[in-house]
Every structure is written in C-alpha cells, then in structure tokens.
Amino acid sequence: MISPREVAARLLSSEVKGDLLTLFHRNPGLIDTVEGVALRIGRMGEVVEDDVRDLLDIGLLKTRRIGGQRILSMDRLRDREIQALLAKHVRNSSGATGKD
Fold first, then answer.
1. How many Å apart are CA 91 and CA 30, to the nearest integer?
2. Is 97 domain-assigned?
3. DSSP string for residues in the chain
4. Is residue 78 assigned to a domain?
5. Please, which pLDDT band fits residue 25 given cuts at 50, 70 and 90?
6. What is the pTM (predicted TM-score) of this model?
7. Tell me, what CATH number does 68's domain have?
8. Residue 11 burial (CB count, 10 A)
9. What is the tally of structural domains in the chain?
10. Does residue 99 fall inside a structural domain?
11. Domain extent for 58
C-alpha cells in the first residue's frame, strides 16, 4: 500500500500533474485519449505520458480500450479515497485535534 506521504509527493511532483488534476476535477466525467488530455492542458502527448502513468499507478486515473484507443478517465471512488487519506495525513501531521 502506498503511504499518504508518497501519494502527496507524487501528486505534487510536477506542474503537468497539477494541470491534469485540475482538468479532471473540473471535468469529472471527462474521457479522452492521452493526446486529447494533453491538448486540453496545452501540452503534447509525449510530454504528459510519464505523469499520466504515475496517476494511473496510484489509481487516480484509469484506462480502457475503445475502438483500439486507450481512453483515460478519473476513478472517482479512488479520488475520494485519496482526498480523505491526504486530509487525514495533513491533520495528523499538523497536530490538529479538530477542536477550536
């Protein structure tokens, strides 16, 4: 199992990942090819490939084949799990108790 610290580090490791995360969060039903997603964030397909692979590896994105093309989409359940994991990690790391 990947640690919360590693998930956070991987999500924040590049500007391209930030752009990809923003794109999929603003368009949660988006399905597109790597090349299409890259164009949507103003990049070339080969530029985003490593970052897409990393997001696939942690389960945030998923792929399927449609008409011989590899199509990307966000795994909404895994996205919620990751957000909850990171929120808990931040609370625990900051020493916050949840009391005001």
1. 31
2. no
3. ---HHHHHHHHTS-HHHHHHHHHHHHSTT-EEEHHHHHHHTT--HHHHHHHHHHHHHTTSEEEEEETTEEEEEE-HHHHHHHHHHHHHHHHHHHT--S--
4. yes
5. very high
6. 0.85
7. 1.10.10.10
8. 18
9. 1
10. no
11. 4-89
